[in-house]
Structure formats: C-alpha cells, structure tokens
Write a structure and sequence with these properties.
six-stranded mixed sheet
Length: 669
C-alpha cells in the first residue's frame, strides 16, 4: 500500500480505478458527501456537468461515476469510479472533494482516500490528519503527466463549504442555494457510439445492502433493487456450517447460493432478481455471518494473476483472450472447481451461462474467453488463480506479408501452397454469425462442389488443421455462415512430433514417425462436445481413428502408418474442449480368445483363422450402429466386414470396432 503524506504525488495506472472516500462510522458524526470535479487546462470546469456527486452521479461521458456509500467493519466508504483511459482529452485533472453536513471535518474520524486498481491492489492511500473547522475539503487530485496519470494528496480545506470550493473551480453558485451549484448548462457531450459504459453495463445499480447476524435467519432486502443479476457476498466466521438460499414468490427455498463448511468462509455468487418483489434470502449458519447484496459493477475486474479462495464473481470488459485457470484443491487436495461465462444478452431471464470448466481435484486448464462485457462465475472449494493472455493483435500489412487472409462473412478464398507436393498447416480463427450449426469451410473443386474441411459445431472458433493433403499447388475454400475470420498457412514441419502422452485444447495436428500403434484419446474437461482423432497419409487419404461420441469415456483407435512408418494425426475438438492423447504399442491390443468386450471405439486382435464370431451390441441410441473394419499389418482400414450384431464371419488379424455403445465379440467354447 502506498501511504502518502500531504502534498506528495505518485504515478497510478492509466486504467479504470475505484476510489473510496472513507471515514469511521460514529453515531452523531457529520455526514460526508464525496464528489469529483473534471477540470480543463485552466483548472476550471466547463459547466456544472463537470461536477459528479450523489445528486448527479454520472458524467455524460460515462467515464466518472458516483457509486454510493457502503458501510461495513465500522467504516463508511463512498465509492467513485474513474475510467482514466477514456477521460476526454480536454480534461486534465480530476479533483476528489468532500463536503460536510451537520458539523465540520475536524469532527470526522479517520478520514482517508484510497485508490484501487482493477485487480483490487491499492495504488494510493492518503489519510487526512489536520482537518479542523472546514466544511469542504479537496482530498486529492488525479492529473495527466508525460502521457500517463499521477495522484497528488492535496488536503486543502474550505470553511465556506462546497459553494466556496466549487467557485474556485469555475462553478457559479447561486447565493440562496449554496449546497447545489448551478450554472447555465452548455451542450452536453455525448459518449461515443461504440463506448462501453463504465464500469460495467450489466444488471441494476443500487446502494449495497449489508445484513449481519448469527445462526439461522431470513433476510429481506428492503432497498429498491431492480430486475436483473446482482451479486450476493457472504462471510461466515468460525468453521461451522453456512448455507444461503434465495426465496421464491411463495416463500420457498429457490436457488442455493452457498453450501459450505469452509473455515472463515468468504464468497460471492450471482443471482437473478425478478424485480417484482423484495429480494429475500434464507441463512443457515452455526456462527456469525455477514451478507452483502450489491450491484454486479462492484465485482473485481478480470486481470492477469487475479486470485481468490472459494466462489467468486468477476467482470470482463476487454478483448477476447485465453484464460489460464489453476485450482489447488481443498484442504485435502480435492474439491470441485467450475467456471461459467455469462454474457448480458443471455442473462435477461437468469441464464447461468456457458460452462467453461467443471472438474474435481487440482487442475490447470486454458479456455478461450470472448470479448466483454461479460461476467465470470466461479465455484470453488479452495484457492485458485486466473491468468489472462490477450490474443495477438492482427496487423493487416504483416498478415499480407505472411500469407494470412482475413475477412468477414461469406467468401471464396484461394490459398497457394507454400511447398507444392507437401501438405501445410492451416491456423484458423472464425467467429460464427449465429447460424444453428455454426460456420462451415469447404474445399471446392472446379465445379463448385464442396468437401467439408471445418465446421463450427465440431472444430470450434480457433484451432489448426491440415490443408493441401494431396500436395495441391492451391485450393479454393468456401466460407459460409461466418462473421470475422482469419486463415493462415504454416509449414507442416511446425507440427509437433507425437512421441508420448500429450494434453491440449481444441483442434491440433501432430506428426508421427514410428511403427503401427494404438492411439488413446480422452477428455480433460467436463463438456460433451465432439472429440475425434484421424490419421492422414502423405497421399492425402484420411480415416477416422477414434471418436468419443460426446462422452467422457476414453476411446482407442489404430494409428495407421505408411510403409515408411509415417502419418499425420488430426485431433478434432471445439476450442474449449480439453483432451489427452497417447500412443501405445500394439501388444496392448486385446486378443480375441473366447470373449472380448468393450464400450465405444476399440481395436481387437483375432489371431486365429477366419471364423464365425458372435457379435452383440447394446446401442447408445437409435442411430448407434456397430461397424467392424478389417485392418492390415500397418493398421490401415482395408475392408468393412460387419455392420451389425449376430453371427458374423470375421477375418484374422486386427479389427477395429466403431460404435458408441457396448459390444462383445465371442467365439464360444
């Protein structure tokens, strides 16, 4: 914490900041009202629009807001929010002031100003220790310096109250109305059409409501809370049980927000308030507790290295990014961790959002995050951290020089092979336009007929695949049902070599050099999206190796290699789907002696001569068929020998089973 003496200054981040004007909560003490004045290069306001206070809480530009007072821990804090990156260029200084009603500042105990960065760190702290008979006070100011921002601890008092302070900064005050400065208003500046409201346009705004108690209780939030999502923060002392439910219109338990025995529990949850009645909550607790109902705008902003323990609510208003999540487990190294992404348009009726992570035990995952504004909901039984990695910013000139093609909407794109006769890697980033099945990318022949290369519902918004599989000199791609898209070619030599277990996310390409083998594939995330592996030969032929069929159960397939012992491996998955793959020797293939059984894709070795084998199948669904393929010594699928259950004539050698249901191969006896 940067503690400052009167007159000192310090740099502050050019970022959205939260400023708290704090004082001790003492019965009978004067009331303090905080305000912000926006000053030009002459140290004057342009009009009374440049005074932000409780009765005029939002500047027309949307960059300065008064968020009301919060009481807790024996303190009262008035919160101000300053979006420094978006402050109008004409504004050179932001003065933080206070006025006193019912007394003088010498009677206000522990008056201070604290500045917080988006990640909750304290950038500046100034405590006023020399106030006497003043009824208005300039606590500090933020000012531009060398392209950035600094904060100065001012500590200047006014015995003439807010009217005298306002007059010093160019606000004409009517003599009979000193408490509310008034001047003829100039035309009010309008915020840019593409500006994002600060700090977060999501849910109703209202002063936070604090309730405390011990044991079981029912809370009625009698303050006016509008319809929409709100944050409920809970703190429980001791190590006893604590639970919190919302109550519905019939006064019955509705949504379970917290349910824990975590010692010294602290947590935040998101709930949807219908707005047609008072928000009511039921507390079950063994110890002392505090519950705070507050707007979503009070939540911490997502930033690199942000950390917490237990459930939380974060806001994100930046560009698309990748989020690195680490969960360290509960006190036993276990517990659950879940992460949801909630977009404002999807939360009008209380949708819980898109599930990005849902795992048990310690984990490290990376998931893609769309651009804001949005909310992140975290459920956790222990400590966690989130790191943010912004996506690379596209440079059109550099893209063209590197052979990268970008566009928007439907398009016909012709790509030239950088190494004719060889395949190449295709890196893609494609946003769908809202079509039911997502975007599609097809390889088109000279007649305009297409072969599917990518599909949003299978391959996600970003990833990598193999192009020019037959060594073509160029290909034409048809892009459909897409918004923004980016396609870039990379040398196939950049594909990682598959030599052992690998974990990853989304679609990827590997090179494999070695003998025929098995390839296992399984999920590391809790979703049920597509997850497949395919092998591709140098001449372009592509065959499926394994398909998890949207299940968490792992699958096994053949790793088919050429005569020279080579192939490419394609992993197909949506960009948020985590996976692990591992090649293993064919000695691990189950041998068909009397009976072999399994579920889903698998490989079986039939060592005897061609014979009749009883095949049984329990389909997972009405369209789930069992297909048996004969494989050669290089594990290439060469012949489909069975498409159903019953007594089947199966050849000797390796067999591939393709299904999502349970199956059994039995020779009898």
């Amino acid at each position: 914490m940067t503690r400052m003496a009167k007159g000192a200054n310090t740099p502050v981040p050019a970022a959205p900041l939260r400023v708290a004007v704090c004082r001790r909560h003492v019965s009978g003490a004067p009331v303090v009202d905080a305000s912000v004045l926006l000053l030009d290069a002459d140290g004057k306001v342009r009009g009374d629009i440049d005074l932000v206070f409780c009765n005029q809480p939002t500047h027309p530009s949307g960059t300065v807001r008064h968020r009301g007072a919060v009481e807790g821990g024996g303190q009262i804090a008035e919160w101000l929010e300053l979006d420094l990156p978006r402050i109008e260029p004409v504004v050179q200084r932001l003065v933080i002031a206070g006025s006193c009603e019912g007394g003088v500042f010498g009677q206000v105990q522990d008056l201070s100003l604290q500045t917080l960065t988006p990640d909750g760190a304290t950038a500046a702290f100034y405590a006023v220790t020399d106030a006497t008979t003043e009824t208005a006070f300039v606590l500090g100011e933020f000012y531009r310096r060398d392209g950035g921002w600094k904060f100065r601890a001012v500590g200047q008092g006014y015995a003439s109250g807010l009217a005298g302070l306002a007059s010093d900064f160019g606000i004409a005050v009517e003599e009979n109305a000193p408490a509310q400065p008034a001047v003829p208003q100039p035309p009010q500046p309008q915020p840019p059409q593409d500006a994002v409201p600060f700090p977060f346009s999501f849910g109703p705004e209202f002063p936070p409501v604090v309730r405390r108690g011990r044991g079981g209780d029912v809370i009625t939030v009698d303050a006016p809370v509008g319809r929409g999502p709100v944050v409920v923060e809970a703190r429980s002392e001791g190590d006893g049980y604590f639970a919190l439910h919302t109550l519905d219109a019939r006064n019955r338990e509705d949504e379970l927000l917290f349910n824990t025995t975590m010692p010294g529990f602290r947590g935040r949850a998101l709930t949807h308030h219908p707005g047609d009645r008072a928000l009511r909550l039921r507390v079950e607790a063994d110890d002392d507790w505090t519950v705070v109902v507050q707007p979503v705008s009070t939540a911490r902003h997502l930033s690199d290295g942000i950390q917490g323990t237990g459930p939380d609510v974060l806001v994100h208003r930046g560009a698309p990014a990748d989020v690195d999540a680490a969960y360290f487990g509960d006190e036993d190294g276990d517990g659950c961790f879940a992460l949801w992404c909630v977009e404002p348009a999807l939360n009008s009726e209380g949708d819980i959002g898109d599930l990005l992570i849902n795992e048990t035990g310690a984990l490290r995952h990376t998931v893609p995050l769309p651009d804001g504004p949005l909310v992140l909901r975290i459920e956790a039984d222990g400590p966690w951290t989130l790191g943010v990695r912004p996506l690379p910013v596209s440079d059109p000139a550099a893209d063209r020089a590197a052979g990268v093609r970008t566009g928007r909407g439907r398009a016909l794109v012709t790509l030239t092979n950088p190494a004719p006769g060889r395949p190449a890697l295709l890196d893609y980033t494609i946003q769908g336009d809202g079509a039911v099945f997502g975007y599609t990318v097809q390889i088109l022949d000279e007649y305009g007929d297409g072969e599917q290369l990518l599909r949003g519902s299978q391959d996600g918004r970003c990833g990598r695949t193999l192009l020019f599989r037959n060594g073509e000199s160029e290909v034409s791609l048809g892009v459909e049902d897409a918004a923004d898209w980016r396609l870039g070619l990379r040398p196939v030599e950049e594909a990682p070599v598959l030599t052992g277990p690998v974990r990853g996310t989304g679609s990827e390409v590997f090179r494999y050099d070695g003998p025929p083998a098995l390839l296992g594939v399984g999920r590391t995330t809790g979703d049920e999206g597509p997850l497949t592996t395919r092998t591709v030969q140098a001449h372009g032929r592509t065959v499926i190796s394994a398909d998890t069929c949207g299940r968490r159960r792992p699958a096994v397939g053949p790793l088919w290699v050429s005569g020279a012992g080579h192939c490419y491996v394609l992993v197909g998955a949506e960009d948020h789907t985590g996976w692990h793959i591992e090649p293993t020797g064919i000695q691990d293939v189950p041998v068909l002696g009397t009976t072999v059984s399994g579920t889903g894709y698998g490989v079986v070795h039939h060592p005897g001569p061609e014979s009749d084998v009883m095949v049984t199948h329990e389909p997972r669904g009405g369209l789930d068929l069992l297909v048996v393929w004969a494989l050669d010594e290089r594990l290439e699928p060469v012949r489909r020998v069975s498409t159903g259950a019953g007594l089947q004539r199966l050849p000797s050698g390796f067999l591939q089973i393709r299904t999502s249901g349970r199956w059994t191969l039995g020779t009898g006896g």
